[in-house]
């Protein structure tokens, strides 16, 4: 006996239509401009290229130092051109944007040449080695028709967008600790993230007290900060802990709530109970300490919004740069100018004697 085909009910049809809508919306998005990528280290491979592939960005060139690596790229990426000639890329009128994720010491000269050539540039942090170079890049960008986005992905993370709204009348405590970092400048490679983020969230700093200690080649820094809008905070930065237990934790105390964000994985808050006749309500009535989770990465549900590249901000920072290149639109949360406060703090910390 012939079986009847299984029929979908109305709810299943509605779900299927919604899934098709999402799929078609993704497939319909086409980026018309062409791009180049400079540098191909593990950070690029693990964090940037997956986002670039998802966004269907047309990478015309991969630029490397050696011709040997360029030839390997030709085989690995058959739709792109491997080259060690950066000038060739800059002279290509079809290139609208350049991703730079090379050795940090080379970033300044690469960004400078790219902006002077009129190409938009996305540069991984740090964009340069000191504030003098940064100010020079800012002036070059002003004279150019191009824009620069710095790879400070935390400023694009969804949890940070929520905290940005609570930027007035607050105090905070920020802890950012890792293991020993022998491969570069910890301030420019690691600490630039929290230092830039506190300026992004709480505004320019008008007073900074520094306490610093060294253990061998590792370093720990404590900062007491007062911002121009009267926000105050303490910051711990260290490479004297462990990479196995590296941690980032930000607590923000606002008039009505106490927020906490841990490792870009979870944003929660505890509501304040207030007071009655200057007596804390908790001392009058029995209160339940409610820790309310606003956002949390769900490892069980494998959708874009639960991907660590999304919750960490990598997805949105790359998408923002592409929008700037494609249409001139996009909110740049990590412009060259926005890095000035972080570089001022780095300079002050480095000049502070142990």
* Proportion of residues in helical segments: 25-40%
Instruction: Report the structural category.
Output: alpha/beta
CATH topology of the largest domain: Dihydrodipicolinate Reductase, domain 2
- Distance N to C terminus: 87 Å
Number of domains: 2
Second-tier CATH architecture of the largest domain: 2-Layer Sandwich
Order of helices and strands: HEHEHEHEHEHEHEHEEEEEEEEEHHH
How many whole angstroms does the radius of gyration measure? Answer: 24 Å
Characterize the largest beta sheet: strand count, sense, and whether it forms a barrel.
8 strands, mixed
CATH class of the largest domain: Alpha Beta
Average pLDDT works out at: 90
Beta-strand percentage range: 25-35%
Spans where pLDDT lies below 50 across 5 or more residues: none
Number of strands: 16
Order of strands across the main sheet? 8-9-10-7-11-12-13-16
Q: Secondary-structure map with pairings?
A:
Layout (H helix, E strand, L loop, with lengths): L9 H19 L5 E5 L3 H13 L3 E6 L3 H10 L4 E3 L2 H5 L4 E6 L3 H13 L3 E5 L6 H13 L4 E4 L6 H7 L6 E7 L8 H17 L2 E11 L2 E10 L4 E7 L8 E7 L3 E6 L3 E6 L3 E2 L2 E2 L11 E5 L11 H4 L2 H14 L12 H12 L3
Parallel strand pairs: 1-2, 1-4, 2-3, 4-5, 5-6, 7-10
Antiparallel strand pairs: 7-11, 8-9, 9-10, 11-12, 12-13, 13-16, 14-15
Helix pairs in contact: 2-10, 5-6, 8-11
């Amino acid at each position: 006996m012939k079986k009847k085909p299984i029929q979908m009910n109305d709810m299943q049809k509605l779900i299927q239509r919604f899934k098709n809508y999402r799929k078609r919306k993704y497939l319909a998005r086409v980026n018309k401009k062409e791009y180049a990528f400079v540098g191909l280290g593990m950070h690029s491979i693990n964090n940037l290229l997956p986002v670039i592939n998802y966004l269907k960005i047309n990478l015309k060139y991969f630029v490397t130092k050696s011709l040997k690596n360029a030839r390997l790229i030709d085989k690995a990426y058959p739709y792109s051109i491997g080259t060690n000639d950066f000038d060739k890329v800059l002279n290509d009128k079809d290139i609208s944007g350049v991703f730079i994720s090379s050795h940090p010491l080379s970033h300044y000269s690469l960004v400078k040449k790219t902006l002077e050539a009129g190409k938009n540039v996305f540069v991984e942090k740090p964009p340069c080695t000191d504030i003098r170079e940064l100010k020079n890049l800012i002036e070059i960008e002003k004279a150019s028709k191009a824009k620069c986005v710095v790879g400070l992905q935390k400023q694009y993370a969804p949890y940070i967008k929520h905290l940005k709204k609570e930027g007035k009348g607050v105090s905070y405590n920020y802890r950012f600790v890792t293991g020993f970092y022998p491969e570069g400048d910890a301030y420019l490679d690691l600490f630039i993230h929290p230092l830039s983020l506190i300026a992004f969230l709480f505004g320019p700093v008008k007073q900074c007290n520094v306490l610093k200690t060294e253990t061998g080649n590792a370093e720990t820094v404590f900062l007491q900060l007062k911002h121009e809008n009267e926000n105050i905070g303490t910051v711990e930065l260290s490479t004297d802990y462990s990479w196995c237990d590296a941690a980032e934790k930000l607590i923000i105390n606002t008039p009505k709530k106490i927020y906490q964000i841990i490792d870009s994985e979870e944003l929660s808050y505890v509501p304040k109970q207030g007071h009655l006749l200057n007596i804390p309500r908790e001392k009058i009535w029995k209160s339940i300490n409610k820790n309310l989770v606003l956002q949390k990465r769900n490892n069980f549900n494998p959708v874009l919004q639960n991907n660590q590249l999304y919750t960490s901000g990598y997805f949105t920072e790359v998408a923002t740069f592409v929008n700037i290149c494609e249409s001139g639109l996009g909110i740049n949360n990590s412009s060259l100018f926005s890095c000035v406060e972080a570089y001022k703090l780095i300079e002050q910390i480095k000049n502070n004697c142990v």
